[in-house]
Structures are given as structure tokens and as C-alpha cells.
């Protein structure tokens, strides 16, 4: 599946499928989620007690004696206190019981705070572990994608998936799920309590509830739709920023700042418009719920006053019922927030799952051969390859590189030289024909173990932020300082590193910006040699190198030929003239094979290339 962040084309998932996959991730922490749910139920119940206690406090203060109440519950409380507590008498029952209930009220509030804190900590612990699992699995999957798949999906979108989108899912585990349950339980408990307090006033709630349900369902539908669009816009902005910040030097050199600003403005304006739509949807919902809330309070005041006047409703029940109106509407308004976060999490989950469901183009066979060493024999047997349909890059290519040989590929740009190297590293699979390494079909070899035996040195050397040491070892701490120094001395990199302050601990800026192309290349040579490959690949590794550094690199190349099979691609024919075999490519086909002198004697394509380069020099 090719990933596309166009919201019209990206794969969508049904809610139940998203829920199932998110549930599978939380399974290892299921006990803690269930425990947090149990605490949430207790918290909801405890959190509703203060309003009930407030109503009873007012009812007790209104009583002239223990039996002066039409609230049977209040009468029972008063008699219970008088009978069981010596400090409560019929003369002081109002003050004594009120103080006792106030103390109970304080205990309830403190207990509720403790339960909320405990629940939050448990959820954060379980949620962070779950998110760690999702992020790790997503990153590992991305690493398994082929080079071709990386060219179809911008880096900025991948970064958005692993960071922003997964962070949105984090809210689902740590906040949204429990809050949805908390608010739903609160609604249920409040409705039950209201029915107990006053069946007649509860009719008002029964009329209002269906209206609220319909409004909430509509809100959820429009919010989900808009969230998908917004997430796509955010991804596009991140992609644009990632690409253009990396290429800022080119933008400034060609004075394209104004054009780039306009392009970014279009993307940013679209994100703004869609975000405003999302805010408008949310902005309509909350005031509408608040308006219905005010209408409900007015209705309860009006009809409740009539019930009080006629003696059909105790004052304590009326006060508690009125307080519970807030407890009824507050969860509904908060549910809107949680639905907002839920839709955001589901929209982000779709994006993350679309990455996870991208099938890698190169998958090892179940019985793939794991190797620890290569002799270095490489055979191309009638190989055809294309990146795009009907645009063949290699056409019926056949050759053999014997173990330990140094072989060079030359030809014009687009001849297929770098493609051959990519096929040897199994970055792509051939369309026709077969590649064999040490007489084993390359498709039968485990990709990871194959690449461990091959050392690649490219024209565009990438250095990571850190130190020279970490760039050579790739943060593999199994290498000793002595091994690092020996590798650098072997490829002449030590002659540059020893001049730097801090030497191997010298700080490397992003992408190695504080090093010249030649210096970066020597560091990459050391990086390759220290990992002890059996096959060395140099793809234009000597291009754009100054003369002084080229001498060091050429000496390094002469040494590295003793390591094993070496394959060189270079436009500078001076780099390849000492190769055991030179293969000349043109439009994806092999035109000539031979040594430097043999090809010159033929006076064919290689001879013409050499003459052109010699005259140019």
C-alpha cells in the first residue's frame, strides 16, 4: 500500500477496528487500567456525596425539633445521632449534627482528592508504557520499509506520525478513556439520585435528555470528520517545514524566500481555516448545552417552588436536586471535550495504523539464510530492473565479480551504476533475472545479515549530531578506543581528527556541517572499516573532494582493497584505473568489460570517456 496523506485517499478504519487495535496495545497493562476503572467508580460515587450532604445540612438547620421534617431520611439521621452520640441532645441537635456532617463533608472532599490523585498516577504509568510500545513498534516498522518507500513518503509526515499523532493517542489512554467512563457513570448515578429525590422534577430531566443525546451525536459526527482534515493539514505543514528547513541554503542562494513564504502561507492558511471550522463546531456545542442547562435550572426552580409550597417535596431534597443539575450538565459539557480528544486520538490512530499497515516491499523468507561472513563473489544473471513501469533502468545485465576483486562501474549519469549497488545491498528487488552472492540467490539471504557484511561509502555522507566517536561507532559501545583509533589510522582519518580540539570527542554539528566533504568522507571510511565488512561499496565517494584530501582518500582506498571485494562507482577515471575489472554501462546495458589498459586499447566508449576527461583536465 502506498501511503498518501491526502484525506480523500488515505485508508480509513472503522471505529471498532481502531478500538480493537488500541485495546491490544493496552493488554499488558490491563490490570492497572481495570484497577484505575475501579477507583474511578468509587471516585464518582464519593464525588456526588457533597451535594447530598449540603441538602441535608440545610434541612437540619431548618428543623425546630427532631421530628419537624417531612424528610424521613433527616428524621432518621437525627434520631441516630441522639441515640448513639452522647454529645448530641434534642436541645443542641441542629448544631451538633451540622458540625458532624460538616466534618464528614471535609473527609469526603479529601478522600475524593486522594482517589483522583491515585487514579491519575496509575493511568499515567500504564498509559506511558502503552504509548512506548506503540511508538517503538511504529519506529521499528518504519525502519523495515524499503528505500523506495521512503522516497514516496516525506520525512516530515513520518516524524508527525511518531511524535504528534502518537502523543494524541497518549491522551486517549491517560485521560480520555477514564474521563468518558467517569462522566458516563456520573450521569447514571446523578439520574438515579434525582429519581430518588424527586420523581416529578426528574420528568424535566427525562424531557431534556433526548435533546442532549441528539446534539451530542451530531457533534461527534462533525468533529470526527473535521479532525481528519485538520490532522492531514498539520502533517502537510510539518512535511513542508522539514523539507524546506533542510534545503534553506538553496532557498537563500537562489533568493526564493518570498516564494517559499507564499507556499507556506497557503498551507498555513488552509490549516487555519480547517482549525477555525473545528473551533466553530465546538463553539456551537458548548453554548448550546449551557443554554439548555440554564433553561433546566429555571424549570426546576419554577416547578420545584410549587412542590415546596404544596408540601410535596422536602426542602433538603429540593436543594440537593437543584445542586445535582450542575452534576448532570457538567459531565455532558465535559463529554464534549472528551469527544473532541477522542476524535483527535482516533484520527491520529488512523494515521499511525496506515504506517503500520504499509507492507515493506522487501520481506525475508521464513527460511532465509542468516550469514556472518561473505567471500565476496557477486553474480548478475540477466537482470532487469525499473523504478517506474516500462522505464527500464537495467536491461539484461550479466556479469561476475570474483571474491576479492576490485571492480569499477563507469558510465554517464543515469546509466544504472548506483542502481546496481542498491540491488547488491538488497535495497530493491529485481524485476527479472537473478542476483547471486557466493552462489546463493540474494532473495534467499536474510537482509539484515547481508547488509552487515557489506560496507557502503556514499558521495553524500551523513553525520549525526554528537561526537566523532559516536559517528564512527554509530553509538555501538562494544568498540574500544583502540579499535576506533586503529580504524582511523588505517584510512588516514586520524590525520584530520588529531588536529581537532578534543579529538574523537569533538562535537559534530547536524549533518556534519562543521566538516568539509573530504573530512566527512574520511570519517565515513573509518565508520565502514571498524565494522569489518567483507564487501566494500564506494558510490562516487571521491567526488567533490579537494586535491589534498583526495591524496589521503586514494591512499585509504589502496589499503581497503585488502579487506575484500571492492565495488567502485566513480566519474573520476583516475580513481578506477587500478581496478581489476572495469564495467562500462550505457542506458542500463553493459557495453564493455576489461582492465583500464584493455579498454583503452579497444578505443571504444571507455576510451572516449577517458579522452574527454583527460582533455578537460
Q: How would you explain this protein's 3D organization?
A:
By secondary structure, the protein is α/β, with parallel strands linked by helices. The chain has a domain at 15-356: ABC transporter transmembrane region fold (Up-down Bundle). The protein is 64% helix and 11% strand. The protein contains 20 helices and 12 strands. It has a 6-stranded mixed β-sheet with strand order 6-9-10-3-11-12, with helices on both faces. A 4-stranded antiparallel β-sheet has the order 2-1-4-5, covered by helices on one side. Helix 7 packs antiparallel against helix 9 (257-309). The radius of gyration is 37 Å and the shape is elongated. The two termini are 49 Å apart.
Question: Based on helices, strands and strand pairing, what is the structural class?
Answer: alpha/beta
The percentage helix is: 55-70%
Task: Walk across the major sheet and give the strand order.
Answer: 6-9-10-3-11-12
Anisotropy-based shape: elongated
Could you name the CATH topology of the domain at 15-356? ABC transporter transmembrane region fold
Tell me the fraction of residues in β-strands, as a range: 5-15%
CATH architecture descriptor text of the domain at 15-356: Up-down Bundle
Amino acid at each position: 500500500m502506498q501511503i498518501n496523506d491526502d484525506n480523500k485517499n488515505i485508508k480509513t478504519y472503522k471505529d471498532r477496528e481502531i478500538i480493537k487495535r488500541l485495546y491490544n496495545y493496552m493488554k499488558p497493562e490491563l490490570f492497572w487500567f481495570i484497577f484505575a476503572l475501579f477507583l474511578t467508580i468509587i471516585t464518582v460515587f464519593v464525588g456526588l456525596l457533597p451535594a447530598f450532604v449540603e441538602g441535608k445540612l440545610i434541612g437540619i438547620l431548618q428543623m425546630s425539633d427532631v421530628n419537624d421534617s417531612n424528610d424521613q431520611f433527616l428524621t432518621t439521621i437525627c434520631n441516630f445521632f441522639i441515640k448513639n452520640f452522647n454529645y448530641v441532645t434534642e436541645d443542641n441537635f441542629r448544631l451538633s449534627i451540622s458540625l458532624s456532617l460538616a466534618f464528614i463533608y471535609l473527609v469526603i472532599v479529601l478522600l475524593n482528592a486522594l482517589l483522583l490523585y491515585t487514579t491519575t498516577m496509575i493511568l499515567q504509568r500504564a498509559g506511558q508504557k502503552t504509548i512506548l510500545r506503540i511508538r517503538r513498534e511504529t519506529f521499528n516498522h518504519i525502519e523495515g520499509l524499503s528505500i523506495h518507500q521512503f522516497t514516496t513518503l516525506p520525512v516530515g509526515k513520518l516524524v508527525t506520525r511518531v511524535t504528534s499523532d502518537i502523543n494524541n493517542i497518549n491522551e486517549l489512554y491517560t485521560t480520555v478513556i477514564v474521563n468518558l467512563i467517569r462522566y458516563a457513570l456520573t450521569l447514571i448515578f446523578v439520574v438515579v439520585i434525582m429519581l430518588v429525590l424527586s420523581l416529578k422534577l426528574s420528568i424535566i430531566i427525562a424531557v431534556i435528555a433526548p435533546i442532549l443525546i441528539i446534539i451530542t451525536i451530531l457533534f461527534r459526527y462533525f468533529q470526527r470528520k473535521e479532525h481528519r482534515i485538520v490532522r492531514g493539514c498539520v502533517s502537510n505543514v510539518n512535511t513542508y517545514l522539514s523539507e524546506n528547513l533542510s534545503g534553506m541554503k538553496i532557498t537563500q542562494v537562489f533568493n526564493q524566500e518570498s516564494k517559499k513564504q507564499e507556499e507556506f502561507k497557503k498551507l498555513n492558511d488552509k490549516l487555519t481555516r480547517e482549525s477555525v471550522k473545528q473551533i466553530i463546531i465546538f463553539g456551537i456545542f458548548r453554548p448550546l448545552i449551557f443554554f439548555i442547562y440554564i433553561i433546566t435550572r429555571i424549570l426546576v426552580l419554577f416547578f420545584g417552588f410549587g412542590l415546596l409550597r404544596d408540601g410535596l417535596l422536602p426542602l433538603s431534597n429540593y436543594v440537593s436536586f437543584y445542586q445535582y443539575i450542575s452534576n448532570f450538565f457538567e459531565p455532558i459539557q465535559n463529554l464534549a471535550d472528551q469527544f473532541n480528544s477522542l476524535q483527535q486520538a482516533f484520527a491520529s490512530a488512523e494515521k499511525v495504523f496506515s504506517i503500520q499497515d504499509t507492507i515493506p516491499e522487501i520481506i525475508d523468507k521464513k527460511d532465509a539464510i542468516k550469514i556472518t561472513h561473505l567471500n565476496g563473489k557477486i553474480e548478475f544473471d540477466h537482470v532487469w530492473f525499473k523504478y517506474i513501469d516500462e522505464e527500464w533502468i537495467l536491461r539484461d545485465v550479466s556479469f561476475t565479480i570474483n571474491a576479492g576483486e576490485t571492480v569499477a562501474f563507469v558510465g554517464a549519469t543515469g546509466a544504472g551504476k548506483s542502481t546496481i549497488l542498491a540491488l547488491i545491498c538488497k535495497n530493491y528487488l529485481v524485476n527479472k533475472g537473478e542476483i547471486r552472492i557466493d552462489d546463493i540467490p540474494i532473495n534467499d539471504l536474510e537482509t539484515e545479515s547481508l547488509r552487515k557484511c557489506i560496507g557502503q561509502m556514499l558521495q553524500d555522507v551523513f553525520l549525526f549530531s554528537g561526537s566523532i566517536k559516536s559517528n564512527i561507532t554509530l553509538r555501538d559501545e562494544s568498540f574500544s578506543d583502540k579499535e576506533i583509533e586503529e580504524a582511523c589510522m588505517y584510512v588516514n582519518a586520524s590525520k584530520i581528527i588529531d588536529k581537532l580540539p578534543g579529538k574523537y570527542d569533538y562535537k559534530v554539528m547536524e549533518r556534519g556541517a562543521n566538516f568539509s566533504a573530504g573530512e566527512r568522507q574520511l570519517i565515513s571510511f573509518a565508520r565502514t572499516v571498524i565494522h569489518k565488512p567483507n564487501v566494500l561499496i564506494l558510490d562516487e565517494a571521491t567526488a567533490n573532494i579537494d586535491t589534498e584530501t583526495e591524496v589521503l582518500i586514494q591512499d585509504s582506498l589502496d589499503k581497503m582493497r585488502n579487506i575484500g571485494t571492492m565495488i567502485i562507482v566513480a566519474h573520476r577515471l583516475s580513481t578506477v584505473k587500478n581496478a581489476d575489472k572495469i564495467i562500462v554501462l550505457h542506458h542500463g546495458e553493459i557495453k564493455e568489460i576489461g582492465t583500464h589498459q584493455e579498454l583503452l586499447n579497444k578505443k571504444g566508449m571507455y576510451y572516449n570517456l577517458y579522452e574527454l576527461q583527460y582533455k578537460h583536465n
